[in-house]
């Protein structure tokens, strides 16, 4: 029997990524809420006072619509969510950053973790620290950096311009120091990471490949 995988996205451009990796055994439903990030951008206090409530409302709505598993693809939404407030009976919630953190923790060389949305950095890095402590893995040598002035492109629907600019930036970073492991933290950057990897001959880490493996494991259970 197929499982209904309900996916919560910050932007519709992420739908194609999940469609491309979903294994057999899942029926996908997509929920897109770009307004939350826009509200946070205009009112930083909302991230503290009300944004987590909005994410929780979305999850409850998805569960009521019959989701068997919920996937959150936006790292910002994940950082806003207080797990202690998740109601009993909610389906399993898969967070895109956790399989990615597992991969990050396996890398022993210095790492550069790139973001395009500056509002995501603090929450994601705090979650990475909490993940390393909870899993008792060696704390990775990770430095975060924002690719400036690009996130507005993807939010405006200019996906090609966004990916071209992120790809160019990744190529420069990958070629500047061959000893540095380079990864992108956001799903919206995964396409650019693949392109930059092909151009440079280096693997650029991204959340999509670890997520694909996690979904394969879930489908097999």
Question: Keywords for this structure?
Answer:
Rossmann fold, alpha/beta, 4-stranded parallel beta sheet, 221 residues, 2 domains, 3-stranded parallel beta sheet, 7 strands
Structure description:
The chain is α/β, with parallel strands linked by helices and 221 residues long. The chain folds into 2 domains: 3-96 and 209-220, Rossmann fold, CATH 3.40.50; 98-207, Rossmann fold. Helices cover 53% and strands 16% of the residues. It is built from 11 helices and 7 strands. The strands form 2 sheets. A 4-stranded parallel sheet has the order 2-1-3-4, with helices on both faces. Strands 6-5-7 form a 3-stranded parallel sheet. Strand 5, helix 7 (118-135) and strand 6 (142-146) form a beta-alpha-beta unit. Helix 6 crosses helix 7, helix 6 packs across helix 11 and helix 9 crosses helix 10 (190-200). The radius of gyration is 17 Å and the shape is globular. The model has no long low-confidence stretch (mean pLDDT 91).
Which percent bin holds the helix content?
40-55%
Radius of gyration: 17 Å
Structural class: alpha/beta
β-strand amount: 15-25%
- Put simply, the count of helices is 11
Provide a concise account of the structure shown.
The chain is α/β, with parallel strands linked by helices.
Topology overview:
Layout (H helix, E strand, L loop, with lengths): L2 E7 L5 H7 L4 E7 L1 H9 L1 H6 L1 H14 L4 E4 L2 H6 L11 E4 L1 H10 L4 E5 L2 H18 L6 E5 L4 H5 L3 H18 L4 E4 L5 H11 L7 H13 L1
């Amino acid at each position: 029997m197929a499982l209904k995988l309900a996916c919560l996205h910050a932007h519709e451009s992420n739908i194609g990524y999940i469609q491309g990796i979903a294994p057999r055994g899942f029926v996908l439903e997509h929920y897109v809420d770009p307004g939350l990030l826009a509200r946070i951008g205009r009112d930083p206090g909302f991230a503290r006072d009300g944004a987590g409530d909005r994410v929780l409302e979305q999850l409850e709505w998805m569960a009521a619509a019959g989701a068997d598993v919920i996937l959150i693809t936006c790292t910002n939404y994940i950082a806003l969510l207080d797990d202690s407030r998740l109601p009993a009976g909610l389906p399993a919630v898969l967070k895109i950053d956790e399989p990615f953190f597992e991969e990050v923790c396996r890398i022993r060389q210095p790492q550069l973790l790139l973001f395009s949305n500056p509002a995501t950095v603090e929450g994601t890095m705090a979650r990475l620290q909490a993940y390393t402590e909870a899993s008792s893995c060696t704390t990775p040598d990770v430095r975060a950096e924002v690719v400036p002035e690009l996130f507005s492109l993807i939010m405006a629907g200019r996906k090609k311009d966004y990916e071209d600019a992120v790809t160019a930036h990744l190529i420069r970073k990958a070629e500047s120091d061959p000893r540095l492991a380079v990864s992108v933290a956001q799903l919206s950057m995964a396409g650019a990471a693949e392109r930059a990897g092909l151009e440079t001959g280096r693997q650029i880490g991204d959340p999509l490949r670890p997520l694909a493996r996690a979904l394969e494991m879930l489908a097999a259970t």
